[in-house]
Amino acid sequence: MRVAALRCFFCSAEYPPGLLYFCERCGGTLEARGKWDAAALKDAVAGANRCGDRRGAWRYREMLPVSDRADPVTMGEGGTPLLRAGRLAETLGHDRVYLKNETVNPTLSFKDRPMSVAATKAVGSGLAGIVAASTGNTGVSAAAYAAKAGLPCSIYVPAGTPSEKTRLIEIYGAKIERVAGNFSDAWRRALEDARREGLFNVTSTYLNPYACEGDKTVAYEIFADLGEVPDWVAIPVGAGPLLWYCLKGFRELVEAGIADRLPRMAAVQAEGCAPIAKAWEAGADEVEPWGEPATAAGGIADPLAGYPRDGTRTLRAVRESGGVALRIPERDIPEYVALLARTEAVCAEPASAIAVAAARKLRESGRLRPGETFVAVITGHGVKDLDAAVSHPHLPHGPSAPAGR
Ligand SMILES: *Cc1c(COP(=O)(O)O)cnc(C)c1O
Ligand SMILES: [Zn+2]
């Protein structure tokens, strides 16, 4: 896709494609807009262009915001399996459960998709380096892709980030700064640093409109593997760009005449940090910042302090899809980690395992009907957050339901 403009999500103001993160008129986040070729998307979905760098996410290169001449910074991200989860399905009491297993990406989370696009863009634009705020996965991914691209990298993480994640960031050679406070505090520091030094800000909220486009490839792949649009796609959300851009991916499939409808999107949050679910439950139009996060789902612990409109953007996508936003009780989280590992041998981090809990919630509320297809995106590997993953009160055995809801 040749980017023709960056458009403000909130007021529709348009800007020439450059290094802009916020609308100059209203401060809103942006979206890359441009012409793309429906036939090329159709070919890619059909697997007709698998060659050279056209494997994994780059199979959908035509849909990514990079120039035709760009040499992708790639390590084999994307192309992850869609697993039919039979044993898990039995436990959850719903037949058609699938897992989009993003834990097998090069740095063990889906963040490698947007980061591969970001690193490619940074190299192509001759930028001096990259900066990110992160709860861990973005930082690990940014550090790795910066290493691969030969660019310096600085990562700002909240003080409580698991040591598995911070050590990986260091191993890849990035500079790491532990910020007192939560993710939003780190978000502000990364913003200042990127501005001051003229570096590419690849923080995985909505602020980098180029990087975010990489998330669309999750939708293309689910559709290509399933052969149809699923009824439900459950995604753990912090600010929510993965959910928003997945829906954008499905929209493009409809626009290209390849798919005939959109899935309903379930935005899944943990009780201890759930600003979007709270707004959805209240029927509110705007998301309010959360106070201090207190959750085992560290990977999505984003209180949106200073940028609550990111949550509003996600909330609108949920509503437009006919979906829901829900929160999972903290006490259930480690049990879903164990359940996923013991039924499907997928080791997920706590933030990712809660996507599975959505199936049970949706069944209970009658929104997920018998025979409908449910896909949970398992966003990141449990090995990067082991303490949170194994510290559980009791474990489920066999196909009985985890205690609590
Ligand atoms: C980044 C991340 C998400 C989704 O985050 P968004 O900012 O909402 O796109 C989900 N799970 C994990 C483990 C993550 O690292
Ligand atoms: Zn605007």
Protein architecture, described:
The structure is a single chain. With 405 residues, this protein is an alpha/beta fold. It has helices spanning 38-45, 86-92, 112-124, 137-149, 163-171, 183-197, 209-212, 216-226, 241-255, 275-282, 309-320, 333-344, 350-364, 386-390; strands at 2-8, 14-15, 30-35, 82-84, 97-101, 130-133, 153-158, 175-179, 200-201, 232-236, 264-270, 324-328, 374-378. Strand 7 (153-158), helix 5 and strand 8 (175-179) form a beta-alpha-beta unit. Mean pLDDT is 94; it is low at 393-405. The structure holds pyridoxal-5'-phosphate and zinc ion. Zinc ion binds at residues 8, 10-11, 13, 23, 25-26, 28.
Question: Topology of this protein?
Answer:
Elements: E1 2-8, E2 14-15, E3 30-35, H1 38-45, E4 82-84, H2 86-92, E5 97-101, H3 112-124, E6 130-133, H4 137-149, E7 153-158, H5 163-171, E8 175-179, H6 183-197, E9 200-201, H7 209-212, H8 216-226, E10 232-236, H9 241-255, E11 264-270, H10 275-282, H11 309-320, E12 324-328, H12 333-344, H13 350-364, E13 374-378, H14 386-390
The structure holds pyridoxal-5'-phosphate (PLP) and zinc ion.
